[in-house]
Amino acid sequence: MQFGIFSVGDVTPDPTTGRTPTERERIKAMVAIALKAEEVGLDVFATGEHHNPPFVPSSPTTMLGYVAARTERLILSTSTTLITTNDPVKIAEDFAMLQHLADGRVDLMMGRGNTGPVYPWFGQDIRQGINLAVENYALLHRLWREDVVNWEGKFRTPLQGFTSTPRPLDGVPPFVWHGSIRSPEIAEQAAYYGDGFFHNNIFWPADHTKRMVELYRERYAHYGHGTAEQAIVGLGGQVFMRRNSQDAVREFRPYFDVAPVYGHGPSLEEFTDQTPLTVGSPQQVIEKTLSFREYAGDYQRQLFLLDHAGLPLKTVLEQLDLLGEEVVPVLRKEFAKGRPADVPEAPSHASLKAAQEVTVA
């Protein structure tokens, strides 16, 4: 399994001090967090994409290219690439360029985002969200696999004899995860192409996640990519840790109460009971994360949200130390127990290249 972190890049006042970081401070903090992730032995750093305050990551490939130059092993990904409002041609070119710069340490997660106004900002209609996701990805899929593309669709101008440059590294397109919280159409899309399905898994109860993952697995098998158990699944998660669980709850509560995504709603206790959020000791994080397999099956990627809601950089780096030193080593060992031999590892550039060479041979 791969373990890592994903960031939404929010710029939120620290409720305990009232101080709001500058955009520059927040951007630099995200880079520091990515570098720390590699230092403590994690596999993946993923950034979101937003085009509105209070978020800063409007250009994921710019940030990931910078991080690529300062890391050696870390897989660079996105926790949302807006397939609905970005031009598929630009996505194809940007991520192929990043592939070359990062020596293949690149994949990405397609999504529709959760900011309705972004559609008109980029000349699109939110009522066409699913249709945009389907058509745009169909084009992107071809752009990475065909040297010359002739194409006509509903939402952009036609392409005649078009070649996207640079071509994917080694002729191997970046692996794609399709991320969704609630849309079965996206699980279906991921299954159709044999791509990965990533369930955000930080808001909804386990039974909802179970239904979405099972749908994807069933349809993956239906389209002939392998058995349902061989489908490529990723999950999100959300943690805050201190060695003493009472200290974790006391410290995190003011941040939870005002967090942009769920503040002023259910209590911290209600939210931790009903969703995958874990606030407590490293052992509690281990136990709850291991329980994900009970409803998602053997899966390939686990990402955690750590840096949000105004948490200071120092605190986030402390969380990463705990994650890398005490939590992930145990999770790697425990998730490996009883894992069927035919369940694939998380795709990488090397494994995809090897598979392509076998196919060609």
UniProtKB/TrEMBL annotation:
InterPro entries: Bact_Lucif_Oxidored, LLM_FMN-dep_put, Luciferase-like_dom, Luciferase-like_sf
Presence of keyword Ribosomal protein: no
Spans annotated as Disordered: 1-21, 339-361
Bilayer-spanning residue ranges: none
A cellular component term, taken from the record's GO annotations: cytosol
Recorded superkingdom: Bacteria
Keyword RNA-binding assigned: no
GO MF term list: monooxygenase activity; oxidoreductase activity, acting on paired donors, with incorporation or reduction of molecular oxygen
UniProt feature, compositional bias: Low complexity: 9-20
Keywords of the record: Monooxygenase, Oxidoreductase
Coiled coil residues, start to end: none
This protein's name: 5,10-methylene tetrahydromethanopterin reductase
Annotated organism of origin: Streptomyces dysideae
